[in-house]
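Weekly puzzle thread! Below is a chain. First person to post its structure in token form gets bragging rights.
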Amino acid sequence: MKLEQCWQHYTKAEELIQQGHWPEAYYLYNDVLSHLPNYIHHSVSCPNTRPCQFACMLDGYRNACINQSEILNHLGRKEEAFTLLSDTYNFFQFLTLESHTIVQAIHTVLSNHSENLFRHISAFCTAQGNSDWMQELANVQKSHHHFHQLQHTASFMQSGRLN
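Winning reply:
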């Protein structure tokens, strides 16, 4: 799927979800979530990618993930909803560790998306109301803490290389 088609699926899914057509939106979001991460990875190393384009792809990926997880949760597919949120959160966390110029240019946007996904995961797990989901949340919280430490270390090391 070409990026333009991927983006068309995303915008159509956004329309459909606003209209309450969840099943149709589910299939379109599924396509977006299958292809957009590859375009994001490609754009990291592409010198022609502008920060606004990169940020837009990240916005779309985050929004598609959150909306798809809500659809999955609505359908009673809680494990899939959690896995989608968790995998996307991990994708964003690892992306923040990249030293490419484009990533550094929108680091704040990327960090905000990671935090936003973390809050969605926390709300999701808390809403489930049982100890298994609270254990999942505890695991994500530990990961979140360790990623912050790793990001701080990576930032410190990178600033040391620049001096």
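Puzzle host: Confirmed. Bonus trivia for everyone else. The helical segments are 3-18, 22-45, 51-74, 78-96, 101-105, 107-128, 131-162.
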